[in-house]
Amino acid sequence: MSGLDIFYTLLSALAGLGVFIFGMKLMGDSLESVSGNTIKNMFSKIDNNPLLGIGIGLGTTAVIQSSSAVTVMLVGFVNANLMTLYQATAVIFGTNIGTTVTAQLVAWGYGGIASFDLTAIFASCAGIGAFMVLFIKKNDLAKQIGTIICGLGMIFVGLSVMGDGMSAFGENPDIVGVFGKVTNPLLLLLLGTAVTAVIQSSSAMSGLVITMSAAGVLTFPQAMYIVVGSNIGTCVTALLSSIGTGTNARRTAVVHLLFNVIGVIVFMLTDLFAHYDRLLMSWFDTPQVQIAMVHTLFNVATVIILLPFMKPLVKLVTLIVPEKKSSKKTSVLSFLNDQILSAPPLAVANLKKEILSMLDLAKENFMAALEEATSLSFSDSKKIAEREKRINDLNKEITAFMIKLSNEELSATDKKYIAAAFHSVSDIERIGDYAENIAEYAEKLKEYRQSFSPEGLLEIDSLRQTLENMFSLTAKIYERNDASLIPELYTHEQNADDLKKLMGENHIERLHKGVCSPEVGSLYLSLASDCERIADHLTNVANTVKFNA
């Protein structure tokens, strides 16, 4: 085999690996998009039951086909205080089992069963899926399914190309001899760790090792240690994503690393007398199935071993990554961060939570400002100013996050939601501005040394009750995406319009009677007008659910 032949074969193997990795990502991203609501529901059910957490981690990773991506998500969730470190640990246990699904798919599909060539059949899915994407114009779900099928096919196209290259190497005794000299288990372990850290996918590493083993370039004992080492290498992505995050988020990444490091240590120690390579070679016939099974059994066994020690593991991680007293959270966002962008459907779900939180903050500021204007008690003035600043900061940061999220792969429904959410955030920010106006009216009343008349205060209280009902109903409509409640909201909005009109008429009457001064009357009318506009903005927020149906 000439040097040029070796060069071409390496290019072929690299091309096959690239197609394989891209096919995995394409299929995983499309599966995630199609099953977005299922994933959202699964993560919303996370509690302190470790078995449930393991099941959710396994199921999510089986869909997304990347334990690294799920762990990055978990780093984001823990950083946003959406789950505890203990809950995230249980999910991590499940992700390590779920990531072996791809290896099993590859192992049973690559090479076929007996004389039945499954590789060619699966590879043809790339063409079938591509035609579906090209020729289906309107049905978004069908196009996504076509993308999933195309991704599945590309996995096997990549495997086939890699396999052809590796077969050429396998037929060359000199090359096989070079690989055959690398027999040190620790060296093979480090090789698997290093290569997986570079390509950031233990599933891709398994695919590469399977093709090399099937071609005779690697023996199963060599492949076994490389695959076991790949479990440590896959932790690099989560470790990198935890840089610059909160303490518990960094701990989540370390839990992932410790899980695999402890598993590898236990595996290597027990292998001294158990000789797993001999056992697996006696249990399973083909190299590809042997490799897939060692990957699966390693992760299942590690979960079984560490499950009773979850709490001590969490305590150990808190010692390894201590709390930094000086660390301060700079972002005003409670539910969003860049790490969660790796899971667009979940990012959309958390976006809704963030917007609802912003709406609640606007309500709190409005009620406090109205109380200040009616009671002329200024004990809350500083908090009102702080909340208004936070509302403005939320407007900027949520908008910036939505721009980033818009560039991710999203379902048609999520795209519509985000387009409408830009307007919702703007409406809520305007509500905050009107609350600030009302607080300024209170300052003016203090400056004038006057107050609203008893009759005016009763009318303001009626308007307050109407708007309080509107805030609650809008939040319910928005959270549940329930357009059926909008007619009830319209009733309250009409009531707010009628009250504003009545307040104007009554004010003129009081002005004629000398009950109210022109200066106070001007502030009174401005307050009524601001409240009516708040009602309009609340209606706008609720109406966005019509576009998400």
UniProtKB/TrEMBL annotation:
Chief site of localization: membrane
Origin: domain of life: Bacteria
Membrane topology summary: Multi-pass membrane protein
Biological-process GO terms, alphabetical: sodium-dependent phosphate transport
Keyword Transmembrane helix: yes
Domain PhoU: 355-441, 462-544
Subcellular location: Cell membrane
One annotated Gene Ontology cellular component of this protein: plasma membrane
Record Gene3D superfamilies: Phosphate transport system protein phou homolog 2, domain 2
TM ranges: 6-28, 49-78, 84-106, 118-136, 142-165, 186-210, 222-241, 253-276, 288-309
GO MF terms held by the record: sodium:phosphate symporter activity
Pfam families from the UniProt entry: Na_Pi_cotrans, PhoU
Keywords carried by this UniProt record: Cell membrane, Membrane, Transmembrane, Transmembrane helix
Protein name: Na/Pi cotransporter family protein
